[in-house]
Write a structure and sequence with these properties.
about 325 residues; alpha/beta; D-Maltodextrin-Binding Protein, domain 2; about 45% helix; about 15% strand; binds fe (iii) ion; metal ion binding
Amino acid sequence: MSVIRSIVAVSLALTAYNSVAQAKELVVYSSRQEHLIQPVFDMYTEKTGVKVNFITDKEAPLMARLRAEGTNTPADIFMTVDAGNLWQAEEQDLFREVKSDIIEGNIPAQYRAESGKWTGLSLRARTIVYSTERVDPEELSTYEALADDSWKGRVCLRTSKKVYNQSLVATMIESIGAEETGEVIKGWMANLAAPVFSDDTALLQSIDAGQCDVGIVNTYYYGRLAKDNPDLKVKLFWPNQDGRGVHVNISGAGVTKHAKSPEEAIKFLEWLTTPEAQRIFADVNQEFPANDSVKPSEEVQAWGDFKPDTINVEVAGRRQPEAIMLMDQMGWN
Ligand code: FE
């Protein structure tokens, strides 16, 4: 017992010393995969000498771990995808408030929490994809129009259990109301060509293979598949261009409530929003930089310009419970 106590005492003393003498290490809990974060973390280490250690897992176990570790957590930063998840983490009181002119200057307000507890670092559009063999893009217009009878037996969707669809529906509720959103979902369900998919890539492959004609996916899944399959018979379509625009979501991060090196963590988060980091962070996953002074990669630019929905992504979190209930009511599995 006393041995354990003295180890704890020593490590606490070291922690205290480290934070005073400027941490040379940071710890990130990330639900983004290693190959998407390692390049930019390495760049930071090279630049500053600060080592960035990380563990990766799905967002739910990482949040559970942060809760369980409480004040003892080694994590300085929590990084994940989707405003719905970031909002959940904020609700669970896992983040601390960060007031940073650098972050506010680099990231548009609709892509970060008003509280300052998290910020977007990259953007992805959740848009319509269609078969180049069986769909004339002239037939396409809005997300809502996929509920029309003309799409009967032609629509494919991912499961409603995925936060991406919950966020899409949450923002629709905010924009067009729960009643109309419910009608749209009912129409989508009536038009399904196949049971819901567990991931966006399988959905894209089913359009390519002829099982579905249209679907809704995140752009980077399309980018990855198209890169590996130049003959892919699927294209992106930007819906709602005469209205609110295409649903855009984020990947992002915040400094943990019990960070051991909060000052260093803030500096790192600030750096992640700078053009230097933004370029790599977005490009490795074929995403759009959240800092709008930075251009996307040529691959991504080739998808063409579109009008994004500029709704504050916090809505995706705030209306998530309503969205889940509505999807369930309308039979979206
Ligand atoms: Fe994803």
